[in-house]
Amino acid sequence: MQERFTGRGLRADSLPKVSLILALLAFTLGWIPTYGVPLGIFLGGASVVFSSIGLTYDPSSSERRFLVVALVLGVVSVMLKFIPGLNVL
Length: 89
Description:
This protein is mainly alpha-helical. The protein has one domain. It has helices at residues 15-29, 36-57, 64-80. Keywords: Membrane, Transmembrane, Transmembrane helix. The chain crosses the membrane at residues 12-32, 66-83.
């Protein structure tokens, strides 16, 4: 029986998709001058949090690869924002 979405919070099966979308947005929008640093840090951090929750909540998930890719991409996008000279404007 499939559980019904009540509008409160995220379901466990939506965490991999949400974290991967946030990681991709953080990585791509993070290159925009001036706004890229806060976007990259915020979206990348949110991706790391959501993917960590997803990996902790259901480690044997069939969509585990999405969570791992989102975690790695989120960490990379956050770390790229702290390299001096990379985001000059």
